Automatic annotation (TrEMBL):
<keyword id="KW-0028">Amino-acid biosynthesis</keyword>
<keyword id="KW-0547">Nucleotide-binding</keyword>
<keyword id="KW-0963">Cytoplasm</keyword>
<comment type="pathway">
    <text>Amino-acid biosynthesis; L-histidine biosynthesis; L-histidine from 5-phospho-alpha-D-ribose 1-diphosphate: step 1/9.</text>
</comment>
<feature type="domain" description="ATP phosphoribosyltransferase catalytic">
    <location>
        <begin position="51"/>
        <end position="205"/>
    </location>
</feature>
<feature type="domain" description="Histidine biosynthesis HisG C-terminal">
    <location>
        <begin position="211"/>
        <end position="282"/>
    </location>
</feature>
<dbReference type="Pfam" id="PF08029">
    <property type="entry name" value="HisG_C"/>
</dbReference>
<dbReference type="InterPro" id="IPR011322">
    <property type="entry name" value="N-reg_PII-like_a/b"/>
</dbReference>
<keyword id="KW-0368">Histidine biosynthesis</keyword>
<dbReference type="InterPro" id="IPR013115">
    <property type="entry name" value="HisG_C"/>
</dbReference>
<comment type="function">
    <text>Catalyzes the condensation of ATP and 5-phosphoribose 1-diphosphate to form N'-(5'-phosphoribosyl)-ATP (PR-ATP). Has a crucial role in the pathway because the rate of histidine biosynthesis seems to be controlled primarily by regulation of HisG enzymatic activity.</text>
</comment>
<keyword id="KW-0479">Metal-binding</keyword>
<protein>
    <recommendedName>
        <fullName>ATP phosphoribosyltransferase</fullName>
        <ecNumber>2.4.2.17</ecNumber>
    </recommendedName>
</protein>
<keyword id="KW-0808">Transferase</keyword>
<keyword id="KW-0067">ATP-binding</keyword>
<dbReference type="InterPro" id="IPR018198">
    <property type="entry name" value="ATP_PRibTrfase_CS"/>
</dbReference>
<keyword id="KW-0328">Glycosyltransferase</keyword>
Length: 285
């Protein structure tokens, strides 16, 4: 059987979470230091460790079958590849920023200005939709330094916490796009590789679904069961087991983490106590 060749970032903001995801999917491999290739011992998958900028091109050319990149990189390189899964990590945004002391009122600030970026295509498209003409200077890294060395009046770069902008005397003024890690695939995959990709996505879905949900156990007096069940509908319906103490039950259910925090006070008001919240490793609906 042929291997599914997966391109992941060698080292950087995507690497750790990408490797963790495959491990959580039960895919075993040994990625010893400086190894640029690794073969899984229990799934027909081969890993290629690459610079993230090269991944869309390798996937389009069929050198790799699938890859993990930021949406920003996928969008910038405009390759004929498909996004097959949003992965929820490496969340960030691509933003325009200017020196902190600059008076900025709106996007017209950038008319006729120089902007430094590693994302010229995304930036050009954004400025076009806003009717702004600017000079785009493409640089491959350390973009935040550009205004300080007189290369540009503004920049367009990745922002997450904002601390890099802050420490370089810049302020964020416009969000160009939001981004997270995505799995991309060669649109010309063979049927055999599609089957493997679907098996992989099934595992990824069960891992991501598990992360978004929690297993909840609580005790409640029997006369509040109806109310509590309505707050914890679970996958089909909650499990209700009698406690040794008469008139009380233990209720087990699955709940979305966000819903849990919204409902916690209502559960307590309804009489729930001894509430335990347990992580779920995998969840298949
Ligand atoms: N501070 C951040 N927080 C969250 N996600 C980020 C952050 N910085 C970058 N990313 C996301 O992770 C991707 C990889 O970022 P990284 O800084 O590792 O890239 P790089 O320096 O271009 O790496 P490479 O050496 O592989 O070319 C980015 O394209 C973006 O989608
Ligand atoms: O808003 P922040 O939380 O400060 O994050 C933004 C910074 O993170 C990334 O760089 P990274 O630290 O990965 O270094 P790099 O420039 O070597 O890629 C990105 O290029 C920004 O510079
Ligand atoms: Mg890169």
């Amino acid at each position: 059987m042929s291997n599914l060749k997966v391109a992941i970032q060698k080292s950087g903001r995507l690497s750790e979470d990408s490797l963790r995801l495959f491990k959580e999917c039960g895919i075993k491999f040994n990625n010893g230091a400086k190894k640029l290739k690794a073969q899984s011992s229990n799934f027909p998958i081969e890993f290629l460790f690459l610079r993230d900028d090269d991944i869309p091109g390798y996937v389009e050319d069929g050198i790799a079958d699938i890859g993990i990149v930021g949406q920003n990189v996928h969008e910038e390189y405009q390759k004929q590849i498909e996004v097959v899964k949003h992965l929820g990590f490496s969340r960030c945004r691509l933003s325009l920023a200017v020196p902190r002391e600059e008076k900025y009122s709106d996007i017209s600030f950038f008319e006729g200005k120089n902007i430094a970026t590693s994302y010229p295509n995304i930036l050009k498209k954004f400025l076009d939709t806003k009717g702004i003409t600017a000079e785009i200077h493409q640089i491959s890294g350390s973009v935040e330094i550009a205004p300080g060395i007189g290369l540009a009046e503004g920049i367009c770069d990745i922002v997450s916490s904002g601390s890099t902008l802050l420490s370089n005397g810049l302020k964020e003024v416009e969000t160009v796009m939001k981004s997270e890690a995505v799995m991309v695939a060669d649109s010309k995959l063979s049927d055999e590789k599609r089957v493997l990709l679907n098996q992989l996505i099934f595992r990824i879905n069960s891992v991501l679904e598990g992360k978004n949900n929690k297993y909840v156990l609580l005790n409640a007096p029997n006369d509040s069961l109806d109310k509590i069940i309505s707050l914890l509908p679970g996958m089909r319906s909650p499990t209700v087991l009698p406690l040794a103490q008469e008139g009380w039950s233990s209720i087990h259910s699955v709940i979305n983490e966000d819903d849990f925090w919204e409902n916690i006070e209502k559960l307590r008001e309804a009489g729930a106590e001894g509430i335990l919240v347990v992580p779920i490793e995998k969840m298949i609906k």
